[in-house]
Amino acid sequence: MESEGKITVAYWKIRGLFRHIQYVLEYCGADYDTKIYEAGGPPDYCRKVWFDNKFNLGLDFPNLPYLVDGDFKMTETVPIIFYIAEKYKPEILGETPQEKATIQMLMNIIHFEAKEPITWDFYLIEDRAKTLEGAIKAIEPIAKFLGDKDYFMGDKPMLPDLHIAELVHLVLAIDTEGEFAEKFPNIVALQKRVDNLPEIKAFLESDRCKDIPFHNLNAKQNP
Protein backbone atom coordinates (compact mmCIF):
# COMPACT_ATOMS: atom_id res chain seq x y z
CA MET A 1 0.00 0.00 0.00
CA GLU A 2 1.32 3.43 -0.96
CA SER A 3 0.10 6.76 0.42
CA GLU A 4 0.92 10.29 -0.68
CA GLY A 5 3.64 11.86 1.42
CA LYS A 6 4.95 8.57 2.74
CA ILE A 7 7.98 6.64 1.63
CA THR A 8 7.38 3.06 0.56
CA VAL A 9 9.72 0.16 1.20
CA ALA A 10 9.17 -3.09 -0.66
CA TYR A 11 10.41 -6.57 0.21
CA TRP A 12 9.46 -10.22 0.49
CA LYS A 13 6.97 -11.29 3.17
CA ILE A 14 9.79 -12.24 5.52
CA ARG A 15 11.90 -10.54 8.17
CA GLY A 16 15.03 -10.98 6.03
CA LEU A 17 16.53 -7.61 5.21
CA PHE A 18 13.26 -5.80 5.78
CA ARG A 19 13.29 -5.91 9.58
CA HIS A 20 16.73 -4.28 9.53
CA ILE A 21 15.26 -1.40 7.53
CA GLN A 22 12.20 -1.22 9.78
CA TYR A 23 14.37 -0.71 12.85
CA VAL A 24 15.77 2.44 11.22
CA LEU A 25 12.39 3.61 9.92
CA GLU A 26 10.87 3.26 13.36
CA TYR A 27 13.75 4.74 15.33
CA CYS A 28 13.88 7.72 12.97
CA GLY A 29 10.12 8.29 13.14
CA ALA A 30 9.66 7.93 9.39
CA ASP A 31 6.18 7.89 7.90
CA TYR A 32 6.19 4.81 5.70
CA ASP A 33 4.16 2.20 3.88
CA THR A 34 5.18 -1.27 2.79
CA LYS A 35 4.84 -3.19 -0.45
CA ILE A 36 5.02 -6.93 0.15
CA TYR A 37 5.86 -9.67 -2.33
CA GLU A 38 5.10 -13.22 -1.27
CA ALA A 39 7.05 -16.15 -2.71
CA GLY A 40 5.36 -19.49 -3.30
CA GLY A 41 5.99 -22.76 -1.53
CA PRO A 42 7.52 -26.05 -2.63
CA PRO A 43 8.36 -27.55 -4.95
CA ASP A 44 9.17 -24.55 -7.18
CA TYR A 45 9.05 -21.66 -4.64
CA CYS A 46 7.56 -19.45 -7.36
CA ARG A 47 8.66 -15.81 -7.31
CA LYS A 48 6.73 -14.64 -10.37
CA VAL A 49 4.99 -11.99 -8.28
CA TRP A 50 8.33 -10.14 -8.26
CA PHE A 51 10.02 -11.22 -11.46
CA ASP A 52 6.96 -10.40 -13.59
CA ASN A 53 7.04 -6.82 -12.33
CA LYS A 54 10.62 -5.93 -11.40
CA PHE A 55 11.46 -4.25 -14.72
CA ASN A 56 8.23 -2.22 -14.80
CA LEU A 57 8.81 -0.17 -11.67
CA GLY A 58 11.22 2.48 -12.95
CA LEU A 59 14.10 1.18 -10.86
CA ASP A 60 17.59 1.75 -12.25
CA PHE A 61 18.87 -1.45 -10.65
CA PRO A 62 15.76 -3.59 -9.99
CA ASN A 63 16.09 -5.55 -6.75
CA LEU A 64 14.46 -6.15 -3.40
CA PRO A 65 14.36 -4.28 -1.15
CA TYR A 66 13.53 -1.05 -2.93
CA LEU A 67 12.46 2.36 -1.65
CA VAL A 68 10.18 4.93 -3.26
CA ASP A 69 10.05 8.50 -1.97
CA GLY A 70 7.93 10.59 -4.33
CA ASP A 71 9.74 10.59 -7.66
CA PHE A 72 12.90 9.18 -6.11
CA LYS A 73 13.49 5.43 -6.29
CA MET A 74 16.42 3.36 -5.12
CA THR A 75 17.57 -0.17 -4.29
CA GLU A 76 20.22 -1.88 -2.12
CA THR A 77 19.79 -2.37 1.60
CA VAL A 78 22.65 -0.39 3.12
CA PRO A 79 22.17 2.69 0.90
CA ILE A 80 18.43 2.59 1.68
CA ILE A 81 19.21 2.55 5.40
CA PHE A 82 21.61 5.49 5.03
CA TYR A 83 19.03 7.42 2.99
CA ILE A 84 16.37 6.99 5.70
CA ALA A 85 18.77 8.04 8.44
CA GLU A 86 20.03 11.04 6.48
CA LYS A 87 16.48 12.22 5.79
CA TYR A 88 14.91 11.69 9.21
CA LYS A 89 17.63 11.55 11.88
CA PRO A 90 21.09 12.40 10.47
CA GLU A 91 22.64 12.59 13.94
CA ILE A 92 22.83 8.77 14.02
CA LEU A 93 25.29 8.96 11.12
CA GLY A 94 27.94 10.72 13.22
CA GLU A 95 29.13 14.29 13.55
CA THR A 96 32.82 14.41 12.65
CA PRO A 97 34.37 12.97 9.48
CA GLN A 98 36.00 10.30 11.63
CA GLU A 99 32.70 9.29 13.28
CA LYS A 100 30.91 9.19 9.93
CA ALA A 101 33.67 7.08 8.40
CA THR A 102 33.69 4.68 11.36
CA ILE A 103 29.92 4.26 11.17
CA GLN A 104 30.11 3.56 7.43
CA MET A 105 32.87 1.02 8.09
CA LEU A 106 30.82 -0.71 10.81
CA MET A 107 27.74 -0.84 8.60
CA ASN A 108 29.72 -2.55 5.85
CA ILE A 109 31.33 -5.00 8.26
CA ILE A 110 28.04 -5.89 9.93
CA HIS A 111 26.18 -6.25 6.65
CA PHE A 112 28.68 -7.81 4.28
CA GLU A 113 31.02 -9.66 6.67
CA ALA A 114 28.34 -10.92 9.09
CA LYS A 115 24.73 -10.56 7.94
CA GLU A 116 25.20 -11.87 4.40
CA PRO A 117 27.31 -15.00 5.13
CA ILE A 118 25.20 -15.91 8.16
CA THR A 119 22.00 -15.62 6.13
CA TRP A 120 23.42 -17.69 3.28
CA ASP A 121 24.19 -20.48 5.73
CA PHE A 122 20.51 -20.61 6.67
CA TYR A 123 19.61 -20.99 3.01
CA LEU A 124 22.32 -23.46 2.01
CA ILE A 125 23.02 -25.81 4.93
CA GLU A 126 20.83 -27.75 7.36
CA ASP A 127 23.35 -28.09 10.19
CA ARG A 128 22.43 -25.55 12.86
CA ALA A 129 25.62 -26.18 14.81
CA LYS A 130 27.67 -25.31 11.74
CA THR A 131 25.56 -22.22 11.11
CA LEU A 132 26.06 -21.09 14.70
CA GLU A 133 29.80 -21.73 14.41
CA GLY A 134 29.92 -19.49 11.33
CA ALA A 135 27.90 -16.81 13.09
CA ILE A 136 30.25 -16.80 16.07
CA LYS A 137 33.25 -16.45 13.78
CA ALA A 138 31.61 -13.58 11.88
CA ILE A 139 30.50 -11.69 14.99
CA GLU A 140 33.75 -12.08 16.94
CA PRO A 141 35.60 -9.02 15.56
CA ILE A 142 32.44 -6.93 15.89
CA ALA A 143 32.08 -7.93 19.53
CA LYS A 144 35.75 -7.08 20.07
CA PHE A 145 35.19 -3.61 18.61
CA LEU A 146 32.18 -3.07 20.90
CA GLY A 147 34.14 -4.10 24.00
CA ASP A 148 32.53 -2.82 27.19
CA LYS A 149 30.80 0.17 25.56
CA ASP A 150 27.01 0.46 25.70
CA TYR A 151 26.90 1.13 21.94
CA PHE A 152 29.44 0.89 19.14
CA MET A 153 30.23 4.60 19.22
CA GLY A 154 29.98 5.07 22.97
CA ASP A 155 27.00 5.96 25.11
CA LYS A 156 24.29 6.64 22.51
CA PRO A 157 22.74 4.51 19.75
CA MET A 158 23.88 5.08 16.19
CA LEU A 159 23.06 3.42 12.88
CA PRO A 160 25.21 0.25 13.30
CA ASP A 161 23.55 -0.53 16.63
CA LEU A 162 20.16 -0.62 14.93
CA HIS A 163 21.54 -2.73 12.10
CA ILE A 164 22.98 -5.49 14.24
CA ALA A 165 19.95 -5.94 16.50
CA GLU A 166 17.90 -8.02 14.06
CA LEU A 167 20.95 -10.11 13.15
CA VAL A 168 21.36 -10.99 16.81
CA HIS A 169 17.69 -12.01 16.93
CA LEU A 170 18.35 -14.39 14.05
CA VAL A 171 21.40 -15.98 15.65
CA LEU A 172 19.74 -16.31 19.05
CA ALA A 173 16.90 -18.20 17.37
CA ILE A 174 19.30 -21.14 16.85
CA ASP A 175 21.40 -20.59 19.99
CA THR A 176 19.53 -23.30 21.89
CA GLU A 177 22.44 -24.03 24.26
CA GLY A 178 23.28 -20.39 24.93
CA GLU A 179 26.70 -20.65 23.29
CA PHE A 180 26.48 -17.37 21.40
CA ALA A 181 25.02 -15.52 24.38
CA GLU A 182 27.77 -16.85 26.65
CA LYS A 183 30.56 -15.94 24.24
CA PHE A 184 29.27 -12.47 23.36
CA PRO A 185 27.30 -11.11 26.32
CA ASN A 186 28.18 -7.57 25.21
CA ILE A 187 26.53 -8.05 21.80
CA VAL A 188 23.42 -9.60 23.36
CA ALA A 189 23.27 -6.75 25.87
CA LEU A 190 23.54 -4.26 22.99
CA GLN A 191 20.64 -5.95 21.20
CA LYS A 192 18.53 -5.72 24.36
CA ARG A 193 19.40 -2.03 24.77
CA VAL A 194 18.31 -1.35 21.20
CA ASP A 195 15.08 -3.30 21.63
CA ASN A 196 14.31 -1.28 24.76
CA LEU A 197 14.75 2.10 23.10
CA PRO A 198 11.30 3.73 23.33
CA GLU A 199 10.83 3.91 19.55
CA ILE A 200 11.92 0.30 18.99
CA LYS A 201 10.03 -1.07 21.98
CA ALA A 202 6.83 0.58 20.73
CA PHE A 203 7.41 -0.92 17.28
CA LEU A 204 8.07 -4.43 18.58
CA GLU A 205 4.83 -4.29 20.57
CA SER A 206 2.79 -2.90 17.65
CA ASP A 207 0.94 -4.53 14.77
CA ARG A 208 3.58 -3.12 12.42
CA CYS A 209 5.95 -5.79 13.74
CA LYS A 210 4.50 -8.73 11.85
CA ASP A 211 4.88 -12.32 12.97
CA ILE A 212 6.55 -13.54 9.79
CA PRO A 213 9.43 -15.98 9.19
CA PHE A 214 13.05 -14.91 8.95
CA HIS A 215 13.48 -16.43 5.49
CA ASN A 216 11.61 -17.55 2.40
CA LEU A 217 10.42 -21.16 2.31
CA ASN A 218 13.35 -22.38 0.22
CA ALA A 219 15.76 -21.84 3.14
CA LYS A 220 17.24 -25.01 4.63
CA GLN A 221 16.68 -23.51 8.09
CA ASN A 222 13.92 -21.09 9.05
CA PRO A 223 13.80 -20.73 12.85
TrEMBL record:
Residues 96-214 form the GST C-terminal domain. Residues 5-92 form the GST N-terminal domain. It is an enzyme of class 2 (transferase). SUPFAM superfamilies: GST C-terminal domain-like (SSF47616), Thioredoxin-like (SSF52833). The keyword Ribosomal protein does not apply. The keyword Transferase applies. Conjugation of reduced glutathione to a wide number of exogenous and endogenous hydrophobic electrophiles. This is glutathione transferase.
